[in-house]
Amino acid sequence: MLSILPLNEKVLKKLQKHTLEEKFDKQVKLILDNPRHPSLNVELLEPKQYGVYSFRINKKFRALFIFRTDVLAIEVLNITLHYHR
């Protein structure tokens, strides 16, 4: 079963700074239950060979993550702004 690795201090601080903890927790539950859930808008980022994905936290922020197949977990790398075209 898929799990999420503990967040690093940088990620935690960004979530707190932008008061995203509650929304992030909700989205994490969705991704652990169904990584293809439509409200997550999971995207494989370029360059694709690095295997870095993102999921939507809200309309403004996204979480960058990788799938860690060695431990069957998601590792959140960063929280970033998402700019719409």
Describe the structure.
By secondary structure, the protein is of the alpha+beta class. It has a single domain (3-81), classed as YaeB-like fold (2-Layer Sandwich). The chain is 26% helix and 29% strand. It contains 2 helices and 5 strands. The protein has helices spanning 9-17, 21-33; strands at residues 3-4, 43-44, 53-56, 61-68, 73-81. Strands 1-5-4-3-2 form a 5-stranded mixed β-sheet. A hairpin with a 4-residue loop joins strand 4 and strand 5 (73-81). The radius of gyration is 12 Å and the shape is globular. It starts with a strand and ends with a strand.
List keywords for this structure.
alpha+beta; 5-stranded mixed beta sheet; YaeB-like fold
Break the fold down into its secondary structure elements and pairings.
Layout: E1 3-4, H1 9-17, H2 21-33, E2 43-44, E3 53-56, E4 61-68, E5 73-81
Parallel strand pairs: 1-5
Antiparallel strand pairs: 2-3, 3-4, 4-5
